[in-house]
Request: fold
Amino acid sequence: MTYRLTKVVPVHGCSCKLPQYQLGELLDQAGMTGIFGPEVLSGPWENSSVIKIADNMAVLNTLDFFTPMVDEPEIQGRIAGSNVTSDIYTLGVTKIVSVLTIMAFPENMPPEIAVGMLKGLSDFCREIDAPIVGGHTIRNPWPIIGGAATGISNPEKIVYTKGAKQGDLLFLTKPIGIAPAMAAYRMQKDEEGKDFLETIPTDVVESAIKGAITGMVTSNKPVAEAIQQVPVHAATDVTGFGLKGHASNMAMLSKVDIVIDKLWVINGTPQLAETFGYPLLSGESKETAGGILIAVAKGNADSLQSELDKRKVGYCEVGYVKEGPGTVTVLKDAKVIEN
Amino acid sequence: MNFEKIDVKGKMCPIPVALTKRKLDSMKSGEMLEVVGEGDLEFENIQRWVINNAHEVVKVDKSGNEFSLLVKKH
Reply:
Protein backbone atom coordinates (compact mmCIF):
# COMPACT_ATOMS: atom_id res chain seq x y z
CA MET A 1 0.00 0.00 0.00
CA THR A 2 1.30 3.44 -0.88
CA TYR A 3 2.31 5.55 2.10
CA ARG A 4 0.44 8.85 2.02
CA LEU A 5 1.94 11.65 4.10
CA THR A 6 -1.34 13.57 4.42
CA LYS A 7 -3.29 10.45 5.40
CA VAL A 8 -1.25 9.69 8.53
CA VAL A 9 -1.81 13.07 10.24
CA PRO A 10 -5.07 14.67 11.38
CA VAL A 11 -3.85 18.25 10.78
CA HIS A 12 -1.86 19.56 7.87
CA GLY A 13 0.82 22.23 7.46
CA CYS A 14 0.34 25.41 9.45
CA SER A 15 -3.07 24.12 10.58
CA CYS A 16 -1.13 22.18 13.21
CA LYS A 17 -0.01 25.49 14.72
CA LEU A 18 -1.44 26.19 18.14
CA PRO A 19 -4.15 28.88 17.97
CA GLN A 20 -2.87 32.38 18.75
CA TYR A 21 -4.99 32.86 21.89
CA GLN A 22 -3.93 29.48 23.28
CA LEU A 23 -0.26 30.19 22.67
CA GLY A 24 -0.65 33.58 24.36
CA GLU A 25 -2.18 31.94 27.43
CA LEU A 26 0.62 29.38 27.63
CA LEU A 27 3.33 32.04 27.37
CA ASP A 28 1.62 34.10 30.08
CA GLN A 29 1.30 31.10 32.39
CA ALA A 30 4.96 30.21 31.83
CA GLY A 31 5.96 33.75 32.71
CA MET A 32 7.41 34.34 29.23
CA THR A 33 6.75 38.02 29.13
CA GLY A 34 8.63 38.92 25.98
CA ILE A 35 10.70 41.48 27.86
CA PHE A 36 14.29 41.07 26.75
CA GLY A 37 17.68 42.70 27.18
CA PRO A 38 18.81 45.63 25.02
CA GLU A 39 20.66 43.40 22.53
CA VAL A 40 17.35 41.81 21.50
CA LEU A 41 15.87 44.08 18.86
CA SER A 42 12.79 41.97 18.11
CA GLY A 43 9.73 42.20 20.30
CA PRO A 44 7.17 39.49 21.08
CA TRP A 45 5.12 37.99 18.21
CA GLU A 46 7.87 38.82 15.70
CA ASN A 47 8.58 36.42 12.82
CA SER A 48 12.25 35.99 13.75
CA SER A 49 14.34 36.88 16.75
CA VAL A 50 16.80 39.68 16.01
CA ILE A 51 19.94 39.93 18.15
CA LYS A 52 22.33 42.82 17.75
CA ILE A 53 25.90 41.51 17.95
CA ALA A 54 27.72 44.64 16.72
CA ASP A 55 26.74 48.16 15.69
CA ASN A 56 26.36 47.14 12.07
CA MET A 57 25.39 43.50 12.51
CA ALA A 58 22.33 41.62 13.76
CA VAL A 59 21.70 37.88 13.72
CA LEU A 60 18.19 36.59 13.02
CA ASN A 61 16.97 33.17 14.11
CA THR A 62 13.74 31.39 13.36
CA LEU A 63 12.32 27.90 13.73
CA ASP A 64 9.45 26.44 11.74
CA PHE A 65 8.24 22.88 11.19
CA PHE A 66 4.94 21.19 10.58
CA THR A 67 2.98 18.16 9.43
CA PRO A 68 2.68 17.36 5.71
CA MET A 69 0.50 19.31 3.29
CA VAL A 70 1.02 17.02 0.30
CA ASP A 71 1.81 13.36 -0.39
CA GLU A 72 4.74 14.06 -2.73
CA PRO A 73 7.81 14.07 -0.44
CA GLU A 74 9.97 16.42 -2.51
CA ILE A 75 7.21 19.00 -2.84
CA GLN A 76 6.62 18.70 0.90
CA GLY A 77 10.31 19.38 1.51
CA ARG A 78 10.15 22.44 -0.73
CA ILE A 79 7.09 23.78 1.10
CA ALA A 80 8.93 23.37 4.42
CA GLY A 81 11.97 25.18 3.03
CA SER A 82 9.84 28.00 1.71
CA ASN A 83 8.02 28.35 5.02
CA VAL A 84 11.05 28.45 7.32
CA THR A 85 13.11 30.84 5.17
CA SER A 86 10.12 33.13 4.76
CA ASP A 87 10.36 34.09 8.43
CA ILE A 88 13.76 35.68 7.71
CA TYR A 89 12.78 37.25 4.37
CA THR A 90 9.72 38.80 5.98
CA LEU A 91 11.99 41.12 7.94
CA GLY A 92 13.48 42.37 4.68
CA VAL A 93 16.65 40.35 5.26
CA THR A 94 18.02 38.72 2.12
CA LYS A 95 21.04 36.89 3.51
CA ILE A 96 20.41 33.50 5.11
CA VAL A 97 23.73 32.07 6.28
CA SER A 98 22.53 28.69 7.51
CA VAL A 99 19.59 26.33 7.76
CA LEU A 100 19.32 23.38 10.14
CA THR A 101 16.80 20.72 9.19
CA ILE A 102 14.28 19.19 11.56
CA MET A 103 12.62 15.94 10.67
CA ALA A 104 10.46 13.43 12.47
CA PHE A 105 9.42 10.16 10.93
CA PRO A 106 7.15 7.35 12.03
CA GLU A 107 8.66 3.88 12.26
CA ASN A 108 6.49 2.54 9.43
CA MET A 109 7.33 5.35 7.00
CA PRO A 110 9.41 4.09 4.05
CA PRO A 111 12.90 5.65 4.14
CA GLU A 112 12.53 6.94 0.57
CA ILE A 113 9.81 9.30 1.82
CA ALA A 114 12.26 10.81 4.32
CA VAL A 115 14.91 11.04 1.61
CA GLY A 116 12.43 12.80 -0.69
CA MET A 117 11.45 15.37 1.94
CA LEU A 118 15.08 16.11 2.74
CA LYS A 119 15.94 16.36 -0.96
CA GLY A 120 13.09 18.81 -1.60
CA LEU A 121 14.12 20.96 1.35
CA SER A 122 17.78 20.81 0.36
CA ASP A 123 17.12 21.65 -3.33
CA PHE A 124 14.91 24.58 -2.35
CA CYS A 125 17.53 26.00 0.02
CA ARG A 126 20.31 25.58 -2.54
CA GLU A 127 18.30 27.48 -5.13
CA ILE A 128 17.91 30.47 -2.81
CA ASP A 129 21.54 30.29 -1.65
CA ALA A 130 20.68 29.30 1.93
CA PRO A 131 23.14 26.55 2.93
CA ILE A 132 21.98 23.59 5.00
CA VAL A 133 24.66 22.98 7.62
CA GLY A 134 23.14 20.37 9.93
CA GLY A 135 19.96 19.12 11.50
CA HIS A 136 18.16 16.86 13.92
CA THR A 137 15.93 13.84 13.31
CA ILE A 138 13.66 11.91 15.64
CA ARG A 139 11.17 9.06 15.52
CA ASN A 140 7.64 10.27 16.07
CA PRO A 141 4.09 9.07 15.36
CA TRP A 142 3.55 12.01 12.94
CA PRO A 143 5.91 12.87 10.10
CA ILE A 144 7.27 16.38 10.48
CA ILE A 145 9.62 18.44 8.32
CA GLY A 146 11.03 21.93 8.73
CA GLY A 147 14.07 23.77 9.89
CA ALA A 148 15.77 26.56 11.77
CA ALA A 149 17.20 29.40 9.70
CA THR A 150 19.77 32.04 10.57
CA GLY A 151 20.05 35.33 8.73
CA ILE A 152 22.34 38.32 9.08
CA SER A 153 21.70 41.99 8.39
CA ASN A 154 22.59 45.53 9.26
CA PRO A 155 20.15 46.29 12.12
CA GLU A 156 19.12 49.54 10.43
CA LYS A 157 17.80 47.63 7.41
CA ILE A 158 15.41 45.34 9.27
CA VAL A 159 11.64 45.70 8.87
CA TYR A 160 9.42 44.51 11.71
CA THR A 161 5.77 43.55 12.10
CA LYS A 162 5.57 46.62 14.31
CA GLY A 163 5.78 50.01 12.62
CA ALA A 164 2.71 50.39 10.38
CA LYS A 165 1.55 54.02 10.30
CA GLN A 166 -1.75 55.73 9.81
CA GLY A 167 -2.35 56.31 6.08
CA ASP A 168 -0.18 53.36 4.94
CA LEU A 169 -1.37 51.10 2.17
CA LEU A 170 -1.17 47.33 2.59
CA PHE A 171 0.13 45.03 -0.10
CA LEU A 172 0.03 41.22 -0.05
CA THR A 173 2.43 39.19 -2.21
CA LYS A 174 0.60 35.86 -2.53
CA PRO A 175 -3.14 35.17 -2.75
CA ILE A 176 -4.78 33.43 0.22
CA GLY A 177 -6.81 30.21 0.23
CA ILE A 178 -4.21 27.49 0.90
CA ALA A 179 -6.40 25.59 3.43
CA PRO A 180 -9.50 25.08 1.23
CA ALA A 181 -7.34 24.30 -1.84
CA MET A 182 -5.33 21.69 0.02
CA ALA A 183 -8.48 20.27 1.64
CA ALA A 184 -9.68 19.68 -1.93
CA TYR A 185 -6.36 17.98 -2.66
CA ARG A 186 -6.98 15.52 0.19
CA MET A 187 -10.70 15.14 -0.50
CA GLN A 188 -9.98 14.17 -4.12
CA LYS A 189 -8.14 11.12 -2.84
CA ASP A 190 -10.73 10.13 -0.25
CA GLU A 191 -13.85 8.11 -1.09
CA GLU A 192 -16.11 10.12 1.22
CA GLY A 193 -14.31 13.37 0.39
CA LYS A 194 -14.88 13.00 -3.37
CA ASP A 195 -18.59 13.25 -2.71
CA PHE A 196 -18.19 16.87 -1.52
CA LEU A 197 -16.36 17.84 -4.70
CA GLU A 198 -19.08 16.53 -7.03
CA THR A 199 -20.75 19.90 -7.45
CA ILE A 200 -17.50 21.74 -8.17
CA PRO A 201 -16.07 21.65 -11.72
CA THR A 202 -12.86 19.62 -11.93
CA ASP A 203 -10.97 22.48 -13.57
CA VAL A 204 -11.82 24.76 -10.63
CA VAL A 205 -10.50 22.18 -8.16
CA GLU A 206 -7.37 21.54 -10.21
CA SER A 207 -6.68 25.24 -10.65
CA ALA A 208 -7.03 25.89 -6.89
CA ILE A 209 -4.67 23.04 -5.98
CA LYS A 210 -2.11 24.08 -8.59
CA GLY A 211 -2.31 27.71 -7.45
CA ALA A 212 -1.84 26.73 -3.81
CA ILE A 213 1.16 24.45 -4.40
CA THR A 214 2.83 26.93 -6.76
CA GLY A 215 2.39 29.65 -4.15
CA MET A 216 3.76 27.55 -1.29
CA VAL A 217 6.94 26.53 -3.13
CA THR A 218 7.65 30.09 -4.27
CA SER A 219 10.32 31.77 -2.17
CA ASN A 220 9.68 35.16 -0.56
CA LYS A 221 13.33 36.14 -1.14
CA PRO A 222 12.51 38.52 -4.06
CA VAL A 223 10.04 40.27 -1.75
CA ALA A 224 12.82 40.85 0.79
CA GLU A 225 14.99 42.26 -2.01
CA ALA A 226 12.19 44.61 -3.06
CA ILE A 227 11.57 45.70 0.56
CA GLN A 228 15.26 46.64 0.83
CA GLN A 229 14.86 49.16 -1.99
CA VAL A 230 11.89 51.02 -0.49
CA PRO A 231 11.38 52.55 2.97
CA VAL A 232 8.46 50.31 4.00
CA HIS A 233 7.09 50.66 7.53
CA ALA A 234 6.19 47.09 8.51
CA ALA A 235 5.91 43.56 7.15
CA THR A 236 4.75 40.13 8.24
CA ASP A 237 4.25 36.88 6.41
CA VAL A 238 0.80 35.35 6.36
CA THR A 239 0.78 31.76 7.65
CA GLY A 240 -0.97 29.81 10.38
CA PHE A 241 -2.93 32.66 11.98
CA GLY A 242 -4.47 33.58 8.61
CA LEU A 243 -4.55 37.02 6.97
CA LYS A 244 -6.67 38.52 9.72
CA GLY A 245 -4.56 37.04 12.52
CA HIS A 246 -1.27 38.28 11.10
CA ALA A 247 -2.77 41.68 10.24
CA SER A 248 -4.01 41.75 13.81
CA ASN A 249 -0.45 41.25 15.08
CA MET A 250 0.70 44.14 12.92
CA ALA A 251 -2.14 46.37 14.10
CA MET A 252 -1.69 45.50 17.79
CA LEU A 253 2.09 45.93 17.77
CA SER A 254 1.92 49.13 15.69
CA LYS A 255 -0.99 50.60 17.71
CA VAL A 256 -3.01 51.36 14.60
CA ASP A 257 -6.18 49.94 13.04
CA ILE A 258 -6.10 47.93 9.83
CA VAL A 259 -8.90 47.67 7.30
CA ILE A 260 -8.87 44.84 4.76
CA ASP A 261 -11.06 45.91 1.84
CA LYS A 262 -9.90 43.40 -0.78
CA LEU A 263 -9.49 39.65 -0.49
CA TRP A 264 -6.99 38.38 -3.02
CA VAL A 265 -7.66 34.65 -3.23
CA ILE A 266 -6.43 31.65 -5.20
CA ASN A 267 -8.76 30.95 -8.09
CA GLY A 268 -11.61 28.64 -7.07
CA THR A 269 -10.96 28.76 -3.35
CA PRO A 270 -14.08 30.80 -2.38
CA GLN A 271 -16.25 28.00 -3.77
CA LEU A 272 -14.18 25.35 -2.00
CA ALA A 273 -14.20 27.32 1.25
CA GLU A 274 -17.97 27.60 1.09
CA THR A 275 -18.31 23.84 0.52
CA PHE A 276 -15.96 22.85 3.33
CA GLY A 277 -16.90 25.59 5.79
CA TYR A 278 -13.54 27.43 5.85
CA PRO A 279 -13.62 31.08 7.01
CA LEU A 280 -11.72 32.30 3.92
CA LEU A 281 -13.81 35.36 3.16
CA SER A 282 -13.47 36.63 6.72
CA GLY A 283 -9.67 36.36 6.34
CA GLU A 284 -9.43 33.71 9.06
CA SER A 285 -8.53 30.66 7.01
CA LYS A 286 -5.07 29.33 7.87
CA GLU A 287 -2.29 29.78 5.33
CA THR A 288 0.97 27.89 4.86
CA ALA A 289 4.12 29.42 3.30
CA GLY A 290 1.99 32.44 2.40
CA GLY A 291 2.91 35.84 1.06
CA ILE A 292 4.18 38.93 2.85
CA LEU A 293 1.84 41.66 4.03
CA ILE A 294 3.63 45.00 3.65
CA ALA A 295 2.64 48.39 5.08
CA VAL A 296 4.04 51.27 3.05
CA ALA A 297 3.36 55.00 2.94
CA LYS A 298 1.10 56.03 0.05
CA GLY A 299 3.92 58.10 -1.41
CA ASN A 300 6.21 55.05 -1.64
CA ALA A 301 3.60 52.59 -2.90
CA ASP A 302 4.51 53.11 -6.57
CA SER A 303 8.19 52.44 -5.84
CA LEU A 304 7.32 49.25 -3.98
CA GLN A 305 5.13 48.05 -6.82
CA SER A 306 7.88 48.83 -9.31
CA GLU A 307 10.46 46.88 -7.27
CA LEU A 308 8.07 43.92 -6.98
CA ASP A 309 7.33 44.09 -10.72
CA LYS A 310 11.05 44.06 -11.51
CA ARG A 311 11.35 40.77 -9.64
CA LYS A 312 8.16 39.32 -11.15
CA VAL A 313 6.50 39.11 -7.73
CA GLY A 314 2.70 39.05 -7.83
CA TYR A 315 0.91 41.36 -5.40
CA CYS A 316 -2.38 43.03 -4.57
CA GLU A 317 -3.25 46.12 -2.55
CA VAL A 318 -5.54 44.61 0.08
CA GLY A 319 -6.22 47.39 2.57
CA TYR A 320 -5.02 50.38 4.51
CA VAL A 321 -3.96 51.57 7.94
CA LYS A 322 -5.85 54.13 10.01
CA GLU A 323 -5.69 55.61 13.46
CA GLY A 324 -7.00 53.31 16.18
CA PRO A 325 -6.20 51.09 19.16
CA GLY A 326 -4.98 48.05 17.23
CA THR A 327 -7.92 46.25 15.66
CA VAL A 328 -8.45 44.65 12.26
CA THR A 329 -11.62 44.82 10.23
CA VAL A 330 -12.19 42.65 7.20
CA LEU A 331 -14.99 44.48 5.43
CA LYS A 332 -18.12 42.38 4.88
CA ASP A 333 -18.29 43.72 1.34
CA ALA A 334 -14.55 43.37 0.72
CA LYS A 335 -13.92 42.93 -2.98
CA VAL A 336 -12.94 39.33 -3.76
CA ILE A 337 -10.25 39.11 -6.43
CA GLU A 338 -9.54 35.62 -7.73
CA ASN A 339 -6.07 35.00 -9.10
CA MET B 1 -39.83 19.09 16.24
CA ASN B 2 -37.38 17.33 13.97
CA PHE B 3 -34.19 16.23 15.76
CA GLU B 4 -31.24 15.07 13.70
CA LYS B 5 -27.97 13.49 14.73
CA ILE B 6 -24.68 12.91 12.89
CA ASP B 7 -21.54 11.12 13.99
CA VAL B 8 -18.33 12.61 12.55
CA LYS B 9 -15.86 10.52 14.56
CA GLY B 10 -12.82 9.32 12.65
CA LYS B 11 -13.45 11.56 9.63
CA MET B 12 -10.59 13.40 7.94
CA CYS B 13 -10.50 17.20 8.18
CA PRO B 14 -12.50 19.03 6.81
CA ILE B 15 -15.22 16.35 6.44
CA PRO B 16 -16.66 16.88 9.98
CA VAL B 17 -17.40 20.57 9.29
CA ALA B 18 -18.57 19.83 5.74
CA LEU B 19 -20.97 17.12 7.01
CA THR B 20 -22.31 19.47 9.70
CA LYS B 21 -22.87 22.18 7.09
CA ARG B 22 -24.53 19.77 4.64
CA LYS B 23 -26.89 18.44 7.29
CA LEU B 24 -27.87 21.91 8.56
CA ASP B 25 -28.45 23.06 4.97
CA SER B 26 -31.04 20.29 4.60
CA MET B 27 -32.89 21.25 7.81
CA LYS B 28 -35.48 23.91 8.59
CA SER B 29 -34.93 26.95 10.79
CA GLY B 30 -35.33 26.13 14.49
CA GLU B 31 -34.66 22.41 14.08
CA MET B 32 -32.00 20.75 16.24
CA LEU B 33 -28.90 18.84 15.22
CA GLU B 34 -26.62 16.87 17.51
CA VAL B 35 -23.05 16.48 16.22
CA VAL B 36 -21.01 13.77 17.89
CA GLY B 37 -17.28 13.78 17.23
CA GLU B 38 -13.77 13.52 18.59
CA GLY B 39 -10.65 15.68 18.76
CA ASP B 40 -10.06 19.18 20.13
CA LEU B 41 -9.40 20.62 16.68
CA GLU B 42 -12.64 19.24 15.22
CA PHE B 43 -14.53 20.45 18.29
CA GLU B 44 -13.18 23.98 17.78
CA ASN B 45 -13.63 23.93 14.00
CA ILE B 46 -17.26 22.81 14.11
CA GLN B 47 -18.17 25.15 16.95
CA ARG B 48 -16.54 28.13 15.22
CA TRP B 49 -18.27 27.36 11.93
CA VAL B 50 -21.66 27.01 13.66
CA ILE B 51 -21.28 30.35 15.48
CA ASN B 52 -19.86 32.19 12.44
CA ASN B 53 -22.87 31.09 10.46
CA ALA B 54 -25.37 32.41 13.01
CA HIS B 55 -26.58 29.02 14.21
CA GLU B 56 -26.91 28.52 17.94
CA VAL B 57 -24.88 26.14 20.08
CA VAL B 58 -27.50 25.06 22.61
CA LYS B 59 -25.48 22.51 24.57
CA VAL B 60 -21.91 21.30 24.72
CA ASP B 61 -20.82 18.01 26.25
CA LYS B 62 -17.12 17.28 26.24
CA SER B 63 -15.58 14.26 27.87
CA GLY B 64 -11.92 13.58 27.20
CA ASN B 65 -11.38 13.49 23.47
CA GLU B 66 -15.07 13.06 22.59
CA PHE B 67 -17.69 15.76 22.25
CA SER B 68 -21.33 16.33 21.51
CA LEU B 69 -22.64 19.66 20.22
CA LEU B 70 -26.34 20.41 20.14
CA VAL B 71 -27.03 23.00 17.46
CA LYS B 72 -30.21 24.93 16.69
CA LYS B 73 -30.44 25.89 13.03
CA HIS B 74 -30.68 29.62 12.34
